[in-house]
Amino acid sequence: MNDARAQDFWAWSLDRYARPGVEETLLVLQDRRGLDVCLLLWCAWRAERGDVVDRRIMAQAVALAEPWSREVTGRLRAVRRALKTARPEAVAAGAPALREAVGKLELEAERAACAMLDGLAPEAPPTGASPDAADAGTQARRNFAAYLAAAGRASEADAEIRALLDALAARLFACSAGP
Asked: Phi and psi of 42, rounded to 5°?
């Protein structure tokens, strides 16, 4: 893995997460549908690079990211959320500072997941022009479908999840269109 490129993926992820509607959509997909935010962003990042994520690579990505998310990131998230409703005694004892520290650890766990996923991407994007926003959005939807299939969740792709993934692709690439 190229460390500079991994940083680029992380910076790209943070930039896209901050776009209007992206955070909310990702959190619904995570909290209500059990999907992995880092995997979804990786699928979109690969799409923007013009990459088609094949079944073998997607299976490797799921095998890397989902256990990490469940065992590390998810547990940190649960602790952070539990501290949000701390009793007054816990607040007086420093629970808000602890919650902030756990939140930083959760973010670092997500950065580590992104770095692991980046190791599965080719060193250089495919030759030729980068796809425009519409093409990237279409490819992101394909990569999202490949993620669901690799995770054994394709049968769960009901109208709500399809609508959320369509909205996510549209929001991720809304600002990418050039002149």
From this structure: -65, -40
Map tokens 């990702």 to a residue.
26
Distance separating alpha carbons of residues 38 and 138, to the nearest angstrom: 19
Q: Max Cα separation, the chain?
A: 60
pLDDT tens digits, one per residue of 68-118 = 999 999 999 999 999 988 888 888 888 899 999 999 999 999 999 999 999
Residues near 119 by beta carbon (within 8 Å), at least 6 away in sequence: 1, 6
Read off the pTM.
Answer: 0.86
Q: How far apart are CA 171 and CA 136, in angstroms?
A: 12
Q: For residue 60, what are the CA distances in angstroms to 39, 80, 107, 147?
A: 11, 29, 22, 10
Could you tell me if residue 128 is left (phi over 0), alpha (psi between -120 and 50 degrees) or otherwise beta?
left
d(CA 38, CA 12): 12
User: Using alpha carbons only, what angle is made at residue 61 by residues 11 and 26, rounded to the nearest 5 degrees?
Assistant: 55
Whether the Cβ atoms of residue 61 and residue 117 lie closer than 8 Å to each other: yes
What are the extents of the domains in the chain?
3-123+133-173
